Recover the amino acids of this structure.
């Protein structure tokens, strides 16, 4: 804790200042005390106040933000963080915090909302583009600024206008825009799946499931054994794992993401084999699998889900081993599913299978799986089986046996 003093009136009237903490907007707060006496006496009183304050935990003082012409963009974002970010997903909160810290806080964020014009905002966007900030990132920055300033207008009783509302994004030519996500070819899928044979069976099984269903990585990480019908080959998707200082389980953002999908016989066979291996692994270490156990957990008993980032890192290693180009990402496997099903099932059923928010909600997720979805699974399965066999014949990898004890 720090303190300071200054003479404010003659004779011997001092203002003593002691740091007491920061408010909810991060601004420093002090305690001010008037003291009459000699300099020596004032110094002793200041030392006593500082020691007294050090014995107390630093408080988080509620800010008394005045919504007026001096309110800055940073003030508006901070107020929204305290009164609104709790309704957002942890991933969105983390993303907004990163955008604020990296691109806004020390620049345009310091400006008073009332003093910023649309011209200056659009000039700021173009400065970000000139600094090679991506189009998507700038679009997210604009959304963050727009929402914060809109709330500032509401909370100020209409006194503060939103300078972001009428702004436009910079234009990008086709050559300036980043490449869209590319769906891997069937031959590349074969090489990827063949390469997983040299990895932990859990990695091979989760990547096979993602390829076979097009589910998102967080959805695959959240699959529990109780979600899997190993007789009929139907999987219930109703949770997702997100990265939030660890792995956090959350409900899907939209109802369209809650669905049941069919898997092909080859993928079902891998899950059955994995169930046996996971059971042996858990029993050897004194645990047991249950309906709530995570299918792809790396812990005995499956109590904790795998971290989504660990699956991405494993995919990168598989991709390097397979020789597939680096423009194929884990999310590209979802694009493969959508592309491969174009000629097999209707657009409506494809939307339902992939859990797109625009899917028609006529069929509740508790309903029976349509025959169309069964055909989709069989089609994907036949493609995967033929291409994996072809890739394995070409590469002829030397795969050793993986014992359960090697996992521990």
């Amino acid at each position: 804790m720090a303190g300071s003093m200054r003479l404010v009136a003659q004779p011997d009237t001092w203002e003593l200042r002691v740091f007491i903490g920061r408010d909810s907007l991060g601004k420093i707060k002090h305690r001010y005390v008037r003291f009459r006496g000699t300099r020596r006496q004032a110094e002793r009183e200041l030392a006593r106040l500082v020691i007294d304050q050090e014995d107390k935990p630093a408080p988080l003082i509620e800010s008394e933000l005045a919504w007026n012409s001096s309110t800055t963009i940073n003030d508006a974002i901070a107020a929204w963080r305290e009164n609104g970010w709790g309704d957002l997903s942890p991933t969105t909160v983390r993303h907004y915090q990163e955008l604020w810290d990296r691109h806004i806080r020390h620049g345009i964020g310091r400006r008073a909302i009332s003093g910023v014009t649309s011209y200056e905002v659009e000039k700021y966007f173009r400065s970000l583009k000139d600094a090679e900030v991506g189009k998507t990132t700038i679009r997210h920055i604009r959304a963050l600024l727009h929402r914060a300033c809109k709330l500032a207008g509401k909370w100020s009783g209409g006194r503060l206008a939103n300078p972001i509302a009428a702004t436009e994004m910079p234009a990008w030519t086709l050559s300036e825009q980043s490449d869209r996500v590319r769906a891997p070819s069937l031959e590349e899928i074969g090489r990827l799946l063949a390469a997983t044979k040299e990895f932990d069976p859990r990695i091979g099984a989760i990547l096979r499931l993602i390829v076979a269903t097009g589910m998102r990585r967080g959805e695959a990480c959240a699959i529990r054994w109780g979600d899997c019908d190993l007789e009929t080959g139907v999987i219930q998707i109703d949770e997702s794992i997100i990265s939030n200082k660890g792995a956090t389980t959350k409900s899907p953002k939209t109802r369209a993401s809650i669905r049941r999908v069919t898997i092909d016989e080859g993928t079902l066979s891998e899950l059955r084999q994995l169930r046996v291996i996971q059971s042996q692994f858990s029993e050897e270490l004194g645990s047991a699998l249950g309906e709530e156990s995570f299918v792809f957990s790396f812990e005995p008993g499956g109590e904790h889900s795998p971290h989504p980032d660990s699956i991405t890192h494993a995919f990168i290693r598989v991709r390097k081993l397979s020789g597939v180009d680096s423009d194929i990402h884990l999310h590209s496997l979802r694009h493969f599913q959508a592309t491969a099903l174009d000629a097999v099932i209707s657009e409506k059923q494809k939307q339902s299978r992939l859990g797109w928010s625009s899917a028609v909600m006529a069929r509740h997720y508790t309903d029976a799986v349509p025959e169309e979805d069964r055909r989709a699974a069989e089609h994907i399965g036949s493609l995967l089986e033929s291409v994996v066999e072809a890739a394995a014949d070409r590469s002829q990898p030397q795969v050793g046996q993986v014992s359960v004890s090697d996992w521990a």
About this structure: Residues 86 and 93 are 8 Å apart (CA to CA).
